[in-house]
Amino acid sequence: MIRCEGPRLSLSGPLTVATAGELASAGQAHVTAGDVVVDLSGVTQVDSAALALLLSWVRAARNAGHQLTIDQPPAALVSLASLYDVDSILPLAR
User: What is the pLDDT of residues 52-65, one digit of tens each?
Assistant: First the structure.
């Protein structure tokens, strides 16, 4: 599920190959409209599709001249980002 509260985009539930497709288009307009913080505190499960989704949003935001920050990433996402060597380009709030 995705919820937008001003410049904060909150995701909840699993962020996997089964859900990433529908979330991609739902979040695309938000990340290109202005600077945004993606809150992952409610995410219960991730896989590589989560990385693909977030990287596509980062690229879209940057192409639109905006900044995207990922807040409260699950440990599994941080681990995957490191494993795939994209942790340096994924804007994770620490």
Answer: 999 999 999 999 99
For the chain, the straight-line distance linking the first and the last C-alpha, in angstroms and rounded, comes to: 23
Distances in Å between the Cα of 75 and the Cα atoms of 71, 79, 80, 94 are 12, 6, 9, 11
Q: What is the pTM of this model?
A: 0.93
Tell me if 39 sits within 8 A of 5, measured CB to CB: no
Q: Which of 9, 1, 6 is nearest to 28 (CA)?
A: 9
Longest dimension (CA), the chain: 32
Give the DSSP letter of residue 51. H
| Residues composing the chain | 94
